Amino acid sequence: MGLAMAARTDNETAFVRDLGAQLRSDQLSVEAAVRTAYAVDQGPILAYAEPVAVVWAESIADVQTVVRIAARHGVPIIARGAGTGVSGGAHATEGSIVLSLERMNTILELNAADEVARVEPGVVNADLNTAAAEHGLMYAPDPASYKVSTIGGNVATNAGGLRCAKYGVTRDAVLALDVVLADGELIHTGHRTFKGVAGYDLTSLFVGSEGTLGIVVGITVRLKYLPTDIRTLAVFFPTVQSAAEGVLALGRARVQPSILELLDGPSLQELDLRNGSDLASRGTALLLAQFDGLAAAQEVEIAIAALTALGGRASQEDPDEANRLMDLRRHSRGMDVDSEITVGEDVAVPRSQLVHYVTALEEMAVRHGVGVRVIAHAGDGNLHPTFHVAEHTEESVAALGRALDESIDKALALGGTITGEHGVGQYKLRWLGLEQNEDLLELQRGIKNYFDPANILNPGKAIPARR
Ligand SMILES: Cc1cc2nc3c(=O)[nH]c(=O)nc-3n(C[C@H](O)[C@H](O)[C@H](O)COP(=O)(O)OP(=O)(O)OC[C@H]3O[C@@H](n4cnc5c(N)ncnc54)[C@H](O)[C@@H]3O)c2cc1C
After folding, report:
1. Mutate to test the pocket of ligand 1, among 157, 380, 383 (most ligand atoms within 8 A of CB)
2. Are residues 383 and 303 in the same domain?
């Protein structure tokens, strides 16, 4: 395997040798191609370094072993699920090891009466849903990456998704966690019951902590009923503003979509270009709504009336067309692989500010001479504007940066947040201080220091270092 060849310092050589003594050879790689493949996630890259090695844990005991050896050698550990993160949270750093949880992919228990499942962290979101469906149940949080991303990664980023409009985000679905701490100790947080207030809510603290406080090795989630009826509505509007107004109109009509996605004109055009669809010919902006449950048919009728009154042209879609539209929406993130000339954002604003914010985005794009297209989990006020420029020049990249910064400032000014669901990772560190003051950041550094005094768990992510 050439272990010594790839290791760069004596400590790293000794570290890899110690790992090799505890793990099977197919659980450890120092091969250049493997280290390159596991070095970054799908987020923009500000900085990364190829890891010293990649390790595949197959059990909790493996994770504990790796963490203990890494702690002894002071080697940073980058936990990794499927690597679909888009904030650079899983980018490897200097002298680090990537600890892949992808092989810990067993559904340990699915209890239909209790409506809970216990899973290992590498279980793919879609696989849990397939298993739950056999019992008439579902795991509701469904990031658009659900076919590949892992429950462990979803937990570490507090992932959102399309169905979150009705069912809430990952944190709302997680009841209990098994976590390996920075010294290798295994703890169990939370409870298997839906209710529970015993002790501090450490489960919620670990959810969204991006691998900086502990390695999640087991997850107990709450399942929901698989709806018996699903109705899908595509409503095309003459302006993106009127589509955004539709979100509030549905609220006033007191109907609860399970999915409520918004796509602006440039997004529809881009999808058409890439998929041969004809969405842009049907309107300037699309509100894609889904209603589920026994009242779905009734809710759709109410929604049609409310949205038509705003100038929308509504059509109820049959299941095949509904699936096609939802798939197109899910792939809309995939068409924007982040680079220096294309950056997707993840702000959230109070729903009442949606119309104002989409207008501001259009204006700032024009002012900075960059392009923007917007897709949004509109029911949650969570927007993914993608700013882009045609070519890579010093000036165009600077203009892109200015537009991005202004989009963040504006979201915060409207009472929003810099990240609705993707996490701070590495890329959004520079903006966190705009949202949270130094005292709050310092408190969080204290928490990090308590859990990870040697700073070996995904260092330099999620919370900015002291200035
Ligand atoms: C096409 C596409 C669509 C997407 N759509 C959505 C969406 O709708 N909603 C959404 O929220 N996100 C979305 N994302 C982002 C991404 O899929 C989510 O952040 C997802 O939760 C990451 O899961 P993963 O298994 O790929 O984790 P990774 O990318 O491997 O890791 C993400 C973070 O979690 C940490 N981590 C991973 N596993 C563990 C563990 N077991 N213990 C501790 N820390 C861990 C990593 O260190 C890293 O910081 C999308 C991404 C793509 C590429």
Report:
1. 157
2. no
Give 1's pLDDT tier (boundaries 50, 70, 90): very low
> Partners of 230 in the beta sheet?
292
Pocket of ligand 1 (CB under 6 A): 41-42, 78-86, 89-90, 101, 121, 143-145, 149-150, 152-154, 156-157, 159-161, 210-211, 215-216, 333-334, 421-422, 458
For residues 246 and 283, membership in a common domain is answered with: yes
Among candidates 293, 297, 267, which has minimal Cα distance to 279?
Answer: 267
The answer to whether residue 422 is domain-embedded is no
Residue 336 pLDDT grade (very low, low, confident, very high; cuts 50, 70, 90): low
In ligand 1, the atom with minimum distance to the C-alpha of 156 is: 34
pLDDT above 60 (res 452): yes
Ligand 1: centre distance to CA 83 (Å): 6
447: Cβ contacts below 8 Å, ≥ 6 apart: 205, 213
| Parent domain of 78 | 3-100
Q: What's the 416 CA to ligand 1 centre distance in angstroms?
A: 22
Alpha carbon distance 22, 24 (integer Å): 7
C-alpha span between 150 and 233 (Å, rounded):
29
Is the pTM for the entire model greater than 0.85?
Answer: yes
Last residue of a domain, one of 190, 225, 260: 225
Q: Position 427: which residue type?
A: Y
Best of 48, 58, 84 to mutate for ligand 1, by most ligand atoms within 8 A of CB?
A: 84
